[in-house]
Amino acid sequence: MLKDITFALEAGGFLSIVGPSGSGKTTLLGLLAGLDQPTRGRVLLDGIDLGTLDEDQRAVLRRGRVGFVFQSFQLVPTLTARENVQVPLELAGADGAAATADDLLERVGLGARGHHYPSQLSGGEQQRVAVARAFSTRPAILFADEPTGNLDGANGATVIDTMIALNAEYGTTLVLVTHDLELAARARRTIRLADGAVVADTAR
Amino acid sequence: MTSAGFVTRLAWREMRASWRRLVLLTGAVLAGVAALVAINSFTDNLRTSVAAQAQALLGADLSLRSRAPLDTSTVAIALVDSLTRIGGDEVAVANSVSFAGMVYLPSSNTARLVQVRSVDPGWPWYGEVRTAPAGIWERLQGGAIIVDPSLLTALGAEVGDTLVLGDASYPIAGSVVNVPGEAGLQSAFGARVFVAHRSIAATNLLGFGARVDHTTFLRLPTTLDAQAIAEANRDRLDAARVRIRTVADDRDNLTDAFTRLGNYLGLVALIALLLGGLGTASAVHVLIRQRMDSIAMLRCLGATSGQVIVAHLLQALAMGLLGSVLGAGAGLVLQQFLPVVLADFLPVDVEVALSPRAIAIGVALGLWTAGVFAVLPLLAIRAISPLATLRRNTDPPRARWEWRRLLAVAALAASVVGLAAVQVGSLVEGAWFAASGGVALVVLWLASLGLIRVARRYAPRRAPYLVRQGLANLHRPGNQTVTVVLALGFGAFLLTTLFTAQANLLRDLRVEAAVDRANLVMFDIQTDQRAVVERVLRAEGATVQPFTPIVPMRIAEVNGEDVGVIFGRGGPARADSAEGDDDGGSLWAYRREYRSTYRGDIGPAERVVEGEWFGSAPSGSGRSADDPVAISVERDVGTELQLQLGDRMVWNVQGARIHAVVTSFREVDWARFEPNFFVIFAPGALERAPQSFVTLARVDDPLARGRVQRALAERAANVATVDLGEVQRALESVIGKVVAAIRFMAIFSLATGAVVLMGAIATSRWQRIREGTLLRTLGATRGQVIRILAVEYAALGTAAALVATTLAATAGWALSRWVFEASFSLPLLPMLALSLALAALTTAVGLWSSLDVLKRPPLEVLRAE
Predict the structure, then answer these.
(1) What is the ipTM of this complex?
(2) Which of B472, B784, B858 sits opposite A91 (nearest CB)?
(3) pLDDT tens per residue, range B117-148
(4) CA B19 to chain centre
(5) Which residue, A10, A18, A31, is CA-closest to A140?
């Protein structure tokens, strides 16, 4: 349950959302990404009011402008790494999906492993595939939900570094939800939630 | 806390909490039990009804039947006389004849071949012939005729019209509704007409060459034991070619026949039940996967794997019991419809009643199936380690091939054989059934593995993403490809096999379509009537085929031994082949009347398999043992008579003794409508014997065929004309009804297949929901998700259909080749239609049960973290 939350995020920025369990982080993320609808209030994404779109229109919007990285990777187990990266492009019917995928896999250091299935990859590798997938459509905004939660320190750092590098290169807005204060500190702005309300909003 | 108490309480608590997941276990056995209870209960009712109506089956206590008038048989006369003496006034005798003849309706100028029956007053003494209008049966004796309703329609006749039969004519009093002891199907092969026995001579139709059955019915006082009389006289009467029947004979024959029918229909029901077992196994398998965490936790807290297994087995049994009870209820409702489906086969009115035996068997088999199929997947519980509570492992536990598992597999196989053996009443047939079912399942299983492999290896890499994802789902971890292909494929296999067998049986009989085949047969033509028949046929522009002579005869001696001696011994003397022939089979071949022919040419539907064809030159006169005539014997009859090349026979041809020597054996394709014969004589011996003729013609126009029948009824009344088109239609309707009955039962297999399909889909639902929501989070529209699912189910359905039709084609071919001994061709278009229907059904059911994948908000993908 969230109440009275108002903030704006500039394009190309890097925001982290922190707070204890049950503080409303996931709900907020869902609203921002258009996965859920607010009972009151508005969410504008890239200038578009999400409240005016129906479910499928929001899906099409996500497909083009939103990327996701999840705690538990969420790769499609029956597709290879390359095919997983291609999914958003293919859903959109874009050309050159394979080339884009190969390029991105190269960037996350998995150029040689594109034909492997998720079950043949380590956790860190799977999450790097997920990062490649998130950037495949060059989204305007990328939501990462505890992206390092299931990874050890070294792998987690690699994943975050990759995300930040791509964020800088593509000009993608980055929204990071995490428990990890050290990680949150790398963002330019941090919003702290508690009991569904913003208790702090600090820029660095 | 005792172990048993703990286990039951555990079972109960888990069941209470998750009964929705267990519903599948109930549904899996439901249809199979319903089918079993329906068919078994129906058979029980039938048996009771046959017993209750047994006397009406014969309408008398005793009957004597013969090809010759009974008053020519001294044995029969002596028996009737002695019974009348002992029983006095209480013994009643009624004579009857039946034969095929043409009736002619002058008012509409139409003619039809019918089965004529003459009856004496009094018959039936037991049971009642129901007529429309009611109560007119007695008017037969006043000179009226009562006919099958189908004849009225065929001739366009009405009650009160006059029917001409030979040289006599009768007013139509009405139609028969039901004759005790006769199934409605009997009228398919020629409408029955009933007339008074004393008026039958006036028709002048009982002359030479007519195939007439003479029957004498006897009513006996209760002091006389009909069965004992029959047993005491049967041998002597047999030797005199008189068949004696009692109420008990009829009842036993019918009960046997219907028990067999019930047993085989029950097998089809059993298949539905076993498919349900497959569904049970797959549902339990998934249940274990879903409960892995809680099972690991229970093990952590100290429960033994045995306790957990028993607790789950109890749940499977409880749900199986529920399904069996519900199925029994459904079966009892269904059995009301079985008499309708089978009505035309039943010579008795079936009283539908509860059969506790059928219910008990059905519920017991349902429960047993639920249990024995659940054990195998339950053994996987042993592989779940308590450590799984700490280290979550999403891989399903893999059961090892240890002795417990082997034992469970053996119990399962033994159960299938046992169930089938109980259902058919024979261990050997039960084992055969289980083996052939097993082969079909193994082929389907291999095919599904092949499908998974093909989907993984050769899925088109360049295909659109939606197609690729749909095909990839076939080999996803925890896919249900095997279960679905097995369950659906088996049901489809059964239905398609029935279909191919039926199509092939009927195709052989299709005379209308084959332009070169005759469609009109005229028999009982007397020597001086040949010219008339030829003129009538030529008038309609038909090509007249040669007249084939027919000489009725009986066997008098075989290799110098009188046929009476062979009877007395109960079979031929050859010791080398004296194994287990009961009297019904081989002796009948000695007793029967043979209608043989003589010719020098071999016919188109026959070929010599042993010896040499005698050709056209006269071989011998047959007048003495020194001058025997050569004969060619049909192979199967030759086997029955245990004849060999060179064997000598003496034939009784209307009193004259004709000596013959066997010079060849022939194989005959009886399915072709040609005049074919068990025994063919070389020319030179029978030319002057009393004979009648048969001829064939092809007349394309049905109206012209009617004119031929009419003209012959008028001008050569004793000539019977058969329109083969009508015979074919009659056969088609009979076969159609048999197939409808089997198909009715096979539907249950498909219903179970659908339940298993829904179960399989439900069990992989959590995976589907996760993937569906993930894809929608990544931007897939609902339409795209639906298309992915549609590809997956269409592929599953198509694969199942493909394997099923291939299997069915093979089975159909084997049936045609070895059982029906007919040629085989593939009914391609109908099979294609069936396959498409199956694929469509699978896709529809699949999509319908996956709808809630679309209902979940994509947010859940985050919540599931």
Answers:
(1) 0.86
(2) B784
(3) 999 988 888 888 888 888 889 888 988 999 98
(4) 41
(5) A10
